[in-house]
């Protein structure tokens, strides 16, 4: 393979690729339909021309046949009048017109065949154009749907790698994190408040109990019980040292809570 052949093939391949990429289905469909309409106009003109030619040939054939019949009558008249040479010339003219009529009949048959072929082609082209018009709208709708789907897929593909989308997702994660932290702080605050109230309630019970014990100790009598003769000096019922020791023990127990 020569160098120029390879270059030519590369150039043709690139040109075909460029043309394929530049082809818009909607525009091509419209242009194809316009071309078919132009072909239809030209074909109709060809059919009309062929029919006109057929009629002209038919008229010429009829005229030739009429002239042949006329010279036949003249030959008979000349022969009746005893003009044999004149009758012979008339028959010669008749023969010429008969030959012309036969030739025109052959040409007329050929022309009629061409007209019939053109008419069939015209009917077929009209049917194709009608079908193409119907398909054009359907194909245009399908092309538009395919183009929209392709644009959607392209947009989705760009979103998956777009920095803006990544930033959006990052901010969404940040908001979720902030909400989680706020919820955790609220739960911790509620737990601390609950523990404070529990401590207050527990402390109130101890204080109430301590106050009750103090009141009991403050109101207790210090009288001595009667002793038999010769007994020792009476001793107080409640020893202060024992109470103080118990109080201290209670304080230490409270401090340890």
Topology of this structure?
Layout: H1 3-22, H2 25-80, H3 84-161, H4 163-218, H5 240-255
Helix pairs in contact: 2-3
Q: What level of helicity do the residues show?
A: over 70%
- Give the strand tally: 0
Biggest beta sheet summary? none
Count of domain modules: 2
pLDDT averaged over residues: 77
Our measurement of the CA-to-CA distance between the termini, rounded to an integer number of angstroms, reads: 103 Å
Rg is 64 Å
Q: SSE string, helix = H, strand = E?
A: HHHHH
How much β-strand is present in the residues?
under 5%
Globally, the shape reads: rod-shaped
The chain-level structural class is mainly alpha
Uncertain stretches: 222-227, 229-239
SS field, number of helical segments? 5
InterPro entries: PspA_VIPP1
Pfam families: PspA_IM30
Family: Belongs to the PspA/Vipp/IM30 family.
Coiled coil: 26-158
Model description:
This protein is mainly α and 257 residues long. The chain has 2 domains: 3-161; 173-200. Helices cover 88% and strands 0% of the residues. The chain has 5 helices and no strands.
């Amino acid at each position: 393979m020569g160098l120029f052949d390879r270059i030519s093939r590369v150039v043709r391949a690139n040109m075909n690729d460029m043309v394929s990429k530049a082809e818009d289905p909607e525009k091509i469909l419209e242009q194809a339909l316009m071309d078919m309409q132009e072909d239809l106009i030209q074909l109709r003109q060809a059919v009309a021309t062929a029919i006109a030619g057929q009629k002209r040939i038919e008229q010429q054939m009829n005229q030739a046949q009429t002239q042949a019949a006329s010279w036949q009558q003249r030959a008979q008249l000349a022969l009746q009048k005893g003009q044999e040479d004149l009758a012979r010339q008339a028959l010669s003219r008749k023969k010429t017109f008969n030959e012309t009529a036969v030739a025109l009949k052959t040409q007329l048959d050929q022309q009629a065949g061409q007209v019939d072929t053109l008419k069939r082609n015209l009917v077929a082209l009209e049917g194709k154009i009608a079908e193409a018009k119907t398909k054009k709208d359907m194909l245009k709708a399908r092309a538009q749907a395919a183009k929209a789907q392709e644009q959607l897929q392209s947009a989705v593909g760009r979103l998956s790698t777009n920095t803006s989308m990544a930033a959006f997702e990052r901010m969404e994660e940040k908001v979720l994190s902030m909400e989680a932290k706020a919820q955790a702080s609220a739960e911790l605050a509620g737990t601390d408040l609950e523990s404070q109230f529990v401590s207050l309630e527990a402390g109130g019970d101890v204080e109430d109990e301590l106050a009750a014990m103090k009141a009991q100790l403050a109101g207790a009598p210090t009288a001595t019980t009667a002793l038999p003769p010769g007994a020792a000096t009476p001793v107080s019922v409640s020893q202060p040292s024992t109470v103080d020791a118990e109080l201290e023990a209670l304080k230490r127990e409270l401090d340890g809570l």
